Amino acid sequence: MRLLLDESVPQRLTASFPESFEVRTVPQMGWSGTGNGKLLHLAAGSDFDAMITVDQGIAHEQNLNTLPIPVVIMLATRNRLQELQPLVPQVITVLSGTLHKQIYQVSA
Question: Which residues pair with 54 in a beta bridge?
């Protein structure tokens, strides 16, 4: 499964995913500073299966009926690695199920 980590997510979180996940970051893809709408379409066009973010505003900024790929929002007090790592097992559980082009939220 190919995952895109939004630039709001610490890049070091990529190491928290099992090897069966191919995880890339927005900066690695050269897409830093790209707005969420365009970013989601770029991700879909590059065969990413889902995007992981901490940006809760994405749920209000995007038309949820036309999302090009699933989005998982990690809900934590801060977007620090120490607070996001414990959420990774829940993210993996969501991604292991049947995914639809919608927003999923995981929290502690």
Answer: none
